[in-house]
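Supplementary Text 2. Reproducibility record for the structural model of the 186-residue chain.

All settings were left at their defaults, and a single model was retained for analysis rather than an ensemble. We include the record here because the model underlies the residue-level annotations in Supplementary Table 4.
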Amino acid sequence: MAGLPVTGLARTVVDLARTVPFEEAVEVADAALRGRPDQRAPLAPVVLAAELARAARWPGSPPARRAIAFADGRSASVGESRSRVAIAGAGLPAPVLQWAVRDRAGRLVGYTDFGWPELHTVGEFDGRVKYGRLLRSGQDAGDSVFAEKVREDRLRDLGLAVVRWTWSDLTDFTPTADRLRHHVRR
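Retained model, structure tokens:
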């Protein structure tokens, strides 16, 4: 900004993490660590850690440390970040993010948002955007839904339970957590 003082990305993430609730701090930190291919490179964790160390004695630094320690650039969206917070809040085991599932021949079946490989369970956060503006050129929503169904069938054929949730499920995650627990316990 011409002539206006601004803070860098790492400082901004730390300042927000010191002042906003945990879930929002995680969303911001995840996004900074993830980056956007069309705009900027991801924030390097070492740069974020150095900025957090500079703020060690500032008000709000303990919650900032907690949120930044929880942050993970592999969360591919705000919905996935919020889902991770909900999963942790429900006392469920930490999932593998962007788990690459392979078939018995070693071929990639797909990446799942959340995976519990030892528990043979995957979790998928579904936002409507993947059936809208994220469609490839020439693809319609029906094509996307069909491809997702085929992928899910392949996951189930490997003996994996698939649990899906949407934005509205994040308001009260208890029923989704119960569905995940059902599969985790089997």
